[in-house]
Amino acid sequence: MSNAYRVTVSERPQAVLRVPPHNWLSEGDSATLSCEVEGSATGWRFLWYRVDSTVKHTLLHRNDGSYSLSPAAIKHTGLYVCRAERGEPAYYTKYSRPQPLWITGSSPAASVVISPNRSQHFTYSTFSLSCDVQDNSSGWRLRWFTGREWLECPSSWSSEMGHTCTISYPYTSDSGVYWCQSDSRATSLAINVTVHDGDVILESPAQPVIEGNPLTLRCMHRSEPTSLSADFYKDGLRLQTQSTGHMTIPAVSKIHEGLYHCRSPDRGTSPKSWVSVSIFLSDIFMKLF
């Protein structure tokens, strides 16, 4: 009888993809994606893929763990995944969880308007979006990306006169990035809309905030018309507690950019919103989760 040997079979390691925290960019921005292997840091080579609507994986690159888009272009919008390999023959990790990345252009001819004017909305609470076309040009339509598919109004939405689309009973699946696009493929700056099935949302303006202007944030409860007593947070750190349920920054600057959310001790916590501040109106945008 031979000597005994112990054989250990472990789970195939998991690749983890990380994208910018706001995962929404304007055309011309720069972005870097990173990939790592859970529990193992050395000896890996990373493979980068973009996933299309048929779930086909297109190999983009092989490298040491980062993938850069500089400058970002509209064609880069999509779902990204990564995995790692090492050894000969190659041993592969599991694919990472798909992560969306949105890139939109900007056109001074049109902008997105949302009513009520906030980025977060409760499920089953009606809101509408429209394309405000400055030069009365035709061929504009509202488009959006939900993280897995690209859609446009009307589809399941009701299309009203002009460039307005309304959803009467929104679900969390209606969360996404919305923009206006013309037949010639000109695009407006986009806004990010979050539909939340919890009881608390952060009320923040969907439209950009210009440097030097005030920014007011409110904590709202689904069934109570008044604002909640709440704690307000930026990048995970508590800024202040307000019994009135709202806080105001008198004049925003670049240092105020970050992820904001609110928490009511009795009611719950809102989703997070990324707020971006810029000097020039044509360059600014608000990025939300």
UniProtKB/TrEMBL annotation:
GO terms for molecular function: transmembrane signaling receptor activity. Keywords: Disulfide bond, Signal. GO terms for cellular component: external side of plasma membrane. CDD domains: Ig. Residues 13-93, 108-196, 198-278 form the Ig-like domain. SMART domains: IG, IGc2. InterPro entries: Ig-like_dom, Ig-like_dom_sf, Ig-like_fold, Ig_Fc_receptor, Ig_sub, Ig_sub2. One of its GO terms (biological process) is immune response. This is Ig-like domain-containing protein.
